[in-house]
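Example 3.2
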Amino acid sequence: MKHIKQLLFISFALSALLLSACNLPTTEDAPETGATTVALTANAVFTQAAETAALPVPSATTALEATLAPTFTPLPPTAPPPTATKTPIPCNRASFVKDVTYPDGAKVAAGSAFTKTWRIKNNGSCTWNSSYVLLFDSGEQMNAPATSPITSGTVAPGETVDISVNLTAPSSPGSYQGNFKLRSADNIVFGINADAQGPFWVKIVVPSPTATPPNPTLPPPPPPLEPDLIVQSIAYSPADPHMGDTVLVTVSVYNQGTAASGPYTVEWYAAGPTLGCSWDVDNSNASGGRVLTCNYTYNGWNHAYVTEAIVDAGNDVYESDESNNTFSYILDVSP
């Protein structure tokens, strides 16, 4: 339908053209030329109309697809990432590696001298030398010096060094901590941790004193060598005397000590305070004794005479036991 309309429009245009050509002014010498021109023009119009009618008319779908056809737009090149700024390493900085001696909580006897050693790493950018010192910072000083050198040589960045200090444990039981830092040659105080300001320390425990038990493998000491005199017995013959009889009295003494006695006196009392006989003895060896005798006549009678013998009566011998020198006996004398 659309093609027919286009052909009609072209035919109408051609007719108008021909009519206008007929009305154009002409010259006598050019009628053939004007006809030729019109013919050529008409021919060209009809040819274009025919080509136009032969061309396919695009559909709405084809036009939409052409409109929605994807296009490729190249992305601009990606910019390279910014270069990170490197943080400079501080000149003086340290890190704790380990306790070489006396770890935290080690027990040290009260008043005892001991040497604390740390292993410290130089993680700064400056080399440590003999002008760098260990510095007491805070806490319990434990007789530590205010400063002491950390090395007689050098400690380059990344190297470790064992730092020691001589200390004395406090005299009272308890827990104690002393904090230390380092100081550079130009008097810069520094330590450990990320900020290079943390101390490293010594932590000890002073225990309460305990009594030392005796060594059970050692025998007890021997007793001192001393004499010990005793009265073993008093005997009478006849055993049951009568008044007026002469009685043989026998007193036996013995040294049960560990040493000889030396001179001593033995006394025998016939009745109460009445002294019957007395003997002077020059010596009694250890584990040795004497038998002493005398005669005595009872001029009265009593069924309960208390007779008594005393060895070392003058207390001339130093003995291990002074309480066993007397022996008593009940004697019955008949009328």
